[in-house]
């Protein structure tokens, strides 16, 4: 199989992001043509000055930096906005999914530690399945399937990512499972069940921690060419990609369950195994970033010192944003 492209969205965590891309490159560079690194318009804790630092760490990698004009975090734009490319590109991974000229695009969170050639193993599995192409029956994606920890069918030991195709409950049976096990997003489940989103189950999706997506299948079926809503939004589902997954599966496309462990660790420097809490808890953010930095230094992946010119550039960016924030606060005070 030919080389593929990679896409990662950067929302803070420069040291985590460096760990992710440098370890991915270490183990899987032979498969990679280009990396799309999407720098979100808004950055947590005003850490805009970290972008030049990250660029310095990744200076030897084949990266195209992308700067979308819109930022949705965990939300979605209005569906009517999807005809506008710039608004569409604010969705996670969307720019690369529309621009890549490769058959597959590898998506990854920016807080991963790659310890083996996960990408190569996924490509080999797709090849064995004979899943290339864009017609129904092709492999639309491969990766860990299902947020099973949130699913009542998993709690009942009836389903998991390896057998999601086989457990097909009736509407009434699924409602009974939600009643019995009361999953964290039960109210969303009920709404989806009422809309006949029965199978795959509401928590079924291709998890984007580390997955391959078939680009021709995506473009053929997804807005703006097709009618399926993009991967990078929760829309009317439980999470990012759930409605996309459900729609493509029911058009006859195939998804392969391929857990990333033990080839990759997700959020390896977090004490809770999740990266999202660090977006709103600064102490957790700071401590996990220190862990990522220590890993990079101990494995000689980054230098101990950075150039003086880079330090000046970072300071200039910090000063610019401090002045901007001060002026905004002053304006609010005067208007109030």
TrEMBL record:
Protein name, UniProt field: Glycosyl transferase family 2
Gene source species: Dyadobacter jiangsuensis
């Amino acid at each position: 199989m030919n080389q593929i492209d990679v896409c990662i969205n950067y929302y803070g965590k420069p040291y985590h992001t460096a760990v992710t891309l440098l370890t991915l490159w270490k183990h899987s560079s032979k498969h990679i043509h280009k990396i799309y690194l999407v720098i979100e318009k808004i950055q947590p804790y005003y850490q805009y000055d970290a972008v030049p630092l990250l660029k310095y760490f990744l200076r030897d990698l084949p990266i195209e930096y992308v700067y979308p004009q819109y930022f949705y975090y965990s939300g979605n734009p209005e569906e009517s906005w999807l005809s506008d490319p710039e608004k569409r590109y604010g969705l996670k991974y969307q720019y690369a999914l529309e621009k890549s000229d490769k058959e597959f695009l590898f998506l990854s969170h920016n807080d991963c530690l790659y310890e083996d050639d996960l990408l190569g193993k996924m490509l080999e599995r797709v090849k064995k399945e004979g899943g290339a192409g864009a017609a129904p029956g092709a492999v639309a994606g491969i990766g860990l399937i299902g947020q099973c920890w949130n699913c009542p069918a998993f709690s009942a030991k009836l389903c998991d990512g390896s057998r999601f195709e086989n457990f097909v409950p009736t509407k009434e049976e699924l409602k009974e499972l939600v009643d019995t096990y009361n999953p964290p997003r039960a109210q969303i489940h009920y709404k989806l069940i009422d809309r006949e989103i029965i199978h795959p189950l509401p928590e079924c999706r291709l998890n984007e921690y580390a997955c391959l997506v078939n680009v021709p299948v995506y473009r053929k079926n997804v807005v703006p060419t097709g009618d399926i809503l993009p991967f990078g939004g929760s829309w009317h589902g439980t999470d990012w990609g759930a409605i996309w997954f459900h729609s493509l599966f029911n058009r006859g496309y195939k998804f392969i369950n391929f857990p990333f462990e033990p080839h990759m660790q997700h959020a390896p420097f977090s004490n809770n195994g999740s990266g999202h809490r660090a977006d709103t808890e600064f102490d957790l953010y700071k401590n996990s970033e220190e862990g990522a930095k220590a890993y990079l230094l101990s494995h000689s992946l980054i230098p101990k010192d950075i150039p003086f010119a880079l330090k000046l550039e970072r300071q200039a960016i910090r000063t610019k944003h401090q002045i901007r924030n001060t002026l905004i606060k002053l304006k609010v005070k005067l208007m109030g």
